[in-house]
Fold:
Amino acid sequence: MKPKLKMRLGDLLVQEQIITNDQLMQALAEQRNSGKKLGRTLIDLASITEDQLLQFLSQQLNIPFLDISRRAIAPQVVNLLPEVQARRYRALVVEDQGDSVLVAMSDPADLQAMDNIEVLLAPKTITIAVVTESQLLEAFDNLYRRTGEIAQIAGKLDEEYAADDQFDLVSLTDADSDNETTVVKLLQSIFEDAVQMRASDIHIEPGDKVLRIRQRIDGQLQENILPEVNIAAALVLRLKLMAGLDISEKRLPQDGRFHMEIKGHQIDVRMSTMPIYHGESVVMRLLDQSAGLLTLNETGMPPAMLARIRKQIKRPHGMLLVTGPTGSGKTTTLYGVLSELNTADRKIITVEDPVEYQLPRINQVQVNHKIGLNFSNVLRTTLRQDPDIIMVGEMRDQETVEIGLRGALTGHFVLSTLHTNDAVTSALRLLDMGAASYLVASALRVIIAQRLVRRVCQNCAQPYHPSAQDIAWLNSVTHQDFSDATFKIGTGCQSCNGSGYRGRVGVFEILELDDGMIDAMRSGNPQDFAAAAYNSPNFTPLAESALEYLAQGLTTIEEVEKLVEDVSENQIPLSTDMISHSKVEG
Structure:
């Protein structure tokens, strides 16, 4: 049975003294101009809040007022009402009750919408609940995945191309028919789903009998398997055309990039192809240009560490290294530093491979190895361009390292990244790459090591008590007292796609070289350098920083355990009497 108001909404609100008659008259006049519903008009005019209005409707219509942000809703239940109609009527099926379904609406007084929903969901009857429009819109984006649409289009494409494995190159390369081709529609759905789920990468991997389309979300791969493996070549062909690659070359890897707009997001796509046994694998990194760059404040770095970094980057010369494995957020941190240094009185030049984000006022150089435009060659020219600050995308070889170090000694502030495990091993890696120990000791000033750990979803976070096994593990790696810790875990909801995690937070370790470390570096003694670093009063290891996040309820024991194991694998081996400061024993 559909709930109905006994009086008009405006008159009821005035009668209950929630709004005044003058506010109602003003809203009715505005409604005639805008065409919006009265409730939305009252909210826009700040005569009433959305929560006040919906609580009132809930009481008047005797229907529940739901908070669906914490509710886990099954995809098969959501899909009972197609997305187009769900968005049109501002309605979401949240529960299948057998002969009936529970439908959450932002306007339960819209009887025409209810009639249409009832027809769409027949023979099931509907029970209405009320929910805020903001929660509905977020739920639409989180719950209406494109997986069903992708599977349907893939099936259609398979019918077109699977029979003889021949592709109509004219239709696939004709710009006038792009939007009409099934391949383009399929790729559009794949990209829309990835952007909707905040994926950083898309993997297209043909197998023997299936095609795997995987997305990396918060550092974890999620898989969608399609049986139409024959369509893989058509997808790769179209993507190569979009990236300007050689469509006839299937035996060698290729790299390219292209730009596209997806659901209002300006996306730069970095694409890499690689020949594998069953065809070509494609991996695409998605860079959301419309999201903007993170500032240092937004990286998640603790305030005490931020203050130390800001003090270091005020130096007129020296080298700052950011280190960590691929995907640990090194470039994001460097861009955050550059955004603070980017003022009119400084000349900044970057040498990158590739340029990920375009920065105003900064001279950015794209490395091109095919024509000999590599890091070392560009860096030599950069030093003759009178820069104050130089950013080198990565220290990859001895020549680049030595030029960067000499630049740091001759009045330039040099920023770069290095693929090493932690801050201590980063300094020693420069020696392994052939740099002279006196150069490293004289130029290197600060090293930031970092990782990313998944953040507990704030919508479904619940306190929990660690198991005896977890407590035993914590006691084995730290002497930190967790008696007052707030352990939390995500139970899974529509906001985090049932994973219990949403987003990631940076874990940082900062090593500022002091006299003891510099002397050990000059002598080229890794044991003495590591001991001096670990005993530095300002040094907090990565693992200990992660344990602090655990105590605050920002992440879970599972995430911290993975980080500690990763860091401990390649730590410099030291006897326990050499380390007095570090609380985490590798």
